[in-house]
Amino acid sequence: MNPSGKAGQQPLEYTIQEVSAKLGVPVHKLRRWDSQGVLVARRTDGGHRRYATEIIDGLAGSTLGAVTDKYQDELAIARRTLQEKRRIIQLLLESESRYRDLVETSHDLIWTTDGLGRFTYLNNGATDIFGLAPRDLIGCCFFDFEARPSHISNRRFLLHLKRHGEVRNYVTRLAARDGSDRWVGINARVSCDERGKLIGIRGTARNITEQHEAALQIEHLATHDSLTGLPNRVSLQRSLEEALRNGGVGAVLFIDIDHFKYLNDNLGHRAADQIIIGVGGVLGEALTDMPSQVYRLGADEFAVFLPDALRPHALQLGEILRDALRHYRYQSAGMHRISGLTASIGVALYPFHGGEVPVLLSNADIAMYQAKDSGRNRCVVYDEEAHTLRRIHSRVQWSSRLREVLDEERLVLFEQPVVRLSDMQTVHREILVRIRDEGGNIVLPGQYIEAAESLGLIQELDMRVVELLLQYLAHPDHRDQKIRHFVNLSRLSISDPQWVRRFQNMLANSCVSPNVLVFEITETAAMSNVDVTQQFIRELKQMGCRFALDDFGAGFSSFYYLKRFDVDYLKIDGGFVRDLATDEANRIFVRALCDVARGLNKQVIAEWVETREVLKILTDMGTGYGQGYLFRRPAPLWSVGQDQEAHRAGG
Predict the structure, then answer these.
(1) Is the pLDDT of residue 268 over 80?
(2) How confident is the model at residue 62 (pLDDT cuts 50, 70, 90)?
(3) Angstrom distance (rounded) from CA 162 to CA 190
(4) Where in 325-474 does DSSP place strands (E)?
């Protein structure tokens, strides 16, 4: 007891032990209450805690337990709140740390500016683009580094940004500190205050110089012949399209070297290539002082575009070119000497012989063959009457033959495997159509497809081929196959609404799953009418069918439209694949095509795979599938005359 109290009287103060006994509160809790200011004790000179009796007695007779428990609950809640705040702060710190690590280690430039476009922050990606450290760029802006040709482009970028508030994938050219150019892709968004006033810009930028230069190289490869460096057929078509749009007159000359196959067979491919290079040079020199351009169309065929020319000028130029070739000399490493060449030259004049590019080129080609038919080594202007007679005769002949083929069921389906290069397993088949003539001989498509298209019979052929394939797949022996079958469809078929309806009904009424059917559309067919192609693909894919874009790469324009075609497979044109082992330009092109396809999540099939060396190159490029003689030549899938009888008999 407190010694200050008298004997028999209530003490004035309690010790901590007495308070513990009276209140039923542990001593350690009383000490904590004291330190927390909950129940404060007086300290004696010796440091002992003393509590006023009136306070303790009052508490002992009150609801102290409830009060203290409530206070304890509040303390617990406050403690948990503090712990949660500490946890949130720690998470924010960790998130900020991760963000800073990502920003500072990013290869892309991440930047912010003030309202005037001056940099306020840049990460380490600035060095790759500007050649300067981030701290040296504070206060600068993009325009301080622009290359002269892009002034207008960059100001257009700023105008678009202010108008729309955001710019995506904007490509421009900047000059780094060392003077070298950088092609840069920029994404940006404006920041505004609550009143809508521009206070800054933030965004990202990436150095795309290598990709841009690669795209330019691909564009050049797509529009120029890899052997001679001359513009190719794609370039000629573009030039003619522009000329026809602008009106006026002009001429196109097709030039074919006479008996070149003899030179190729006797001197070899290497010498023949050197002759082709030499011919390109000779033709170019002959046209040095003329407003014209030489093109190589392929093999031993060249073309000359001569704007603002009429018949006399075009014939005069043809004689100049024949004379230049006559004086050409070549001597191979094996001492084979070629003294002069002759050529058959066909001339078509626009707009007289064609107001559309395909018609004009076709007529120039016909004129060239008219020159050959007339004895070679001459220049001939397109003769519409002679061509009409020949065309009518050919149409009459093929009209009768093709109708007999359809009526007598003399179509033969062949198949060639599509192999997965990772394990060399056959996973698909391409269906190829052949004709069996009256003597039982097989006729290849190259001999009749053009006639079938001109006669309007190609649609019936397409329908019949798919019908035969469905019969084959519906047979019990083939119904469980997991292999997909690729079938070509012509441009004329998919652009005919009535044919499309018949085709869809045939598929819908078949017991064959559409999932095993892949329809191939050539690049040129797809590009002839983009909207029609898209509609056809969309409707057939809703049924479960798949699509492949055939001969991909034959025309560069498909790069631009490729993302609009919802196809599953891209079949790289065999002309690029066959010479991969010896043609560096083809390797660059095929690698680029594979990269584009993978970027768009499409499967790549390389056609005309004929050697192990080419197979290894394709595998190293990551090409998924291959098709060609290396794996197997086309073989009969189903002969109509035999298998239909077996099918009818249930065999």
Answers:
(1) no
(2) low
(3) 7
(4) 329-331, 337-339, 343-350, 379-381, 411-420, 425-436, 442-443
| Residues 6 or more apart in contact with residue 381 via CB below 8 angstroms | 311, 314, 315, 346, 347, 348, 349, 367
The alpha carbon of 37 is separated from its chain's Cα centroid by a whole number of angstroms, namely 73
Q: How far apart are CA 457 and CA 462, in angstroms?
A: 9
Cis amide linkage into residue 351, ω under 30° from 0: yes
Our count of domains for the chain comes to 3
- The candidate with the shortest Cα–Cα distance to 249, out of 366, 318, 348, is 348
Task: Report yes or no on 92 lying in a domain.
Answer: no
- Give 170's strand partners: 186
The amino acid at residue 612 is R
Look up tokens 């066909």; give the residue: 346
Mean pLDDT, the chain, integer: 82
Q: Show the tokens assigned to 447.
A: 């001999």
Question: Minimal CA–CA distance to 334: which of 264, 252, 268?
Answer: 268
Residues 225, 161, single domain; the answer is no
Query: Can you give the pLDDT at residue 149?
Result: 55
> Do 472 and 422 share a domain, yes or no?
yes
We report the CATH number of the domain holding residue 312 as 3.30.70.270
pLDDT higher than threshold 90 for residue 381: yes
Do 410 and 278 lie in a common domain? no
- Give the angle 155-157-158 at the CA atoms, nearest 5°: 65
Does residue 69 lie within any of the structural domains?
Answer: no
Is the alpha carbon torsion for 595, 596, 602, 607 positive or negative? negative
- CA-closest candidate to residue 183, choices 205, 203, 206, 209: 209
Pairing of strands 517-522, 442-443: unpaired
In the numeric block, the tokens 């019936």 are attached to: 460
Same domain for 219 and 203, yes or no, is no
Neighbours of 336 (CB within 10 A): 13
The CATH number given to whatever domain includes residue 448 is 3.20.20.450
CA dihedral 446, 448, 453, 458 (to 10 degrees): -100
Q: Determine the structural domain holding residue 133 and report its residue range.
A: 106-207
Residue 71 lies in a domain: no
Give the Cα separation of 211 and 194 in Å (integer): 40
Beta bridge partners of 538: none
Which of 75-79, 269-273, 341-345, 564-568 shows the highest mean pLDDT?
341-345
Question: Would you state the structure tokens that stand for residue 244, as one six-digit string?
Answer: 């026809």
Q: Which residues pair with 603 in a beta bridge?
A: 569
**What predicted TM-score, i.e. pTM, was given to this entire model?**
0.46
Same structural domain, 121 and 165: yes
**Which of residues 382, 417, 446 is at a domain's end?**
382
Using CA atoms, how far apart are residues 405 and 443, in angstroms rounded to an integer? 11
H or E stretch covering 206: strand 198-207
